[in-house]
Design goal:
heterodimer, A: 111 residues, mainly beta, globular, B: 114 residues, 7-stranded mixed sheet, 4-stranded antiparallel sheet, 11 strands, 0% helix
């Protein structure tokens, strides 16, 4: 079992819809969870992070964490074509560990 | 305020050669991590430097080595290059004193090994 698993997609949603991206992790000692966006040929860009159970909202983005079920999700409301990218989930083990990334989910928002 | 900067942006090497990649962290950042990202994959952790010492290391062979300088900049060295070393090499830095672990990435160095 991989440490961080994501559906590689592609996930296709129409413009204006809600895109839902999911991620599961295997290490129960993981403490912080991150979502990065990566456009083709570019480097990952931090969207947001979460470390407490529940929801965290930032503009059109909402991260959701459920430690008991070991999953973290990212919701993108009012999806725009400019949101089309690969979304990487990353998990940090403990308080000093580095980030472990999933393979990413490719999102395509159709006009 | 410059972000994380990396050089060179692209390079081509042949098998068996050696390569050095360079990274300058963002201002106010003191920890540098290096990642390898193969096409279609997520970034894989190589190692992390803090206070000029390697603090953590991922599952990479000794051909991969690094260094951090007193000004927090860092180098990644890869010896005896293999075709499988072709990838995007990402440097990421962390703010001084940050407890939450977020990393900020540079634009990467794309290495092609022929």
């Amino acid at each position: 079992q991989k440490e961080v698993e994501q559906n590689s997609g592609p996930l296709s949603v129409p413009e204006g819809a809600i895109a839902s991206l999911n991620c599961t992790y295997s290490d129960r000692g993981s403490q912080s969870f991150f979502w990065y966006r990566q456009y083709s040929g570019k480097s990952p860009e931090l969207i947001m992070f979460i470390y407490s159970n529940g929801d965290k909202e930032d503009g059109r983005f909402t991260a959701q964490l459920n430690k008991a079920s070991q999953y973290v999700s990212l919701l993108i409301r009012d999806s725009q074509p400019s949101d089309s990218a690969t979304y990487l989930c990353a998990v940090r083990r403990g308080s000093q560990g580095n980030l472990i990334f999933g393979k990413g989910t490719k999102l395509s928002v159709k006009p | 305020d410059a972000g994380v900067t990396q050089s060179p942006t692209h390079l081509i090497k042949t098998r068996g050669q050696q390569v050095t990649l360079r990274c300058s962290p963002k201002s106010g950042h003191d920890t540098v991590s290096w990642y390898q990202q193969a096409l279609g994959q997520g970034p894989q952790f190589i190692f992390q430097y803090y206070e000029e010492e390697e603090r953590q290391r991922g599952n990479f062979p000794d051909r991969f080595s690094g260094h951090q300088f007193p000004n927090y900049s860092s180098e990644l060295n890869v010896n005896a290059l293999l075709l499988g070393d072709s990838a995007l090499y990402l440097c990421a830095s962390r703010p001084r004193g940050a407890n939450t672990g977020e990393l900020f990435f540079g634009e990467g160095s794309r290495l092609t090994v022929l």
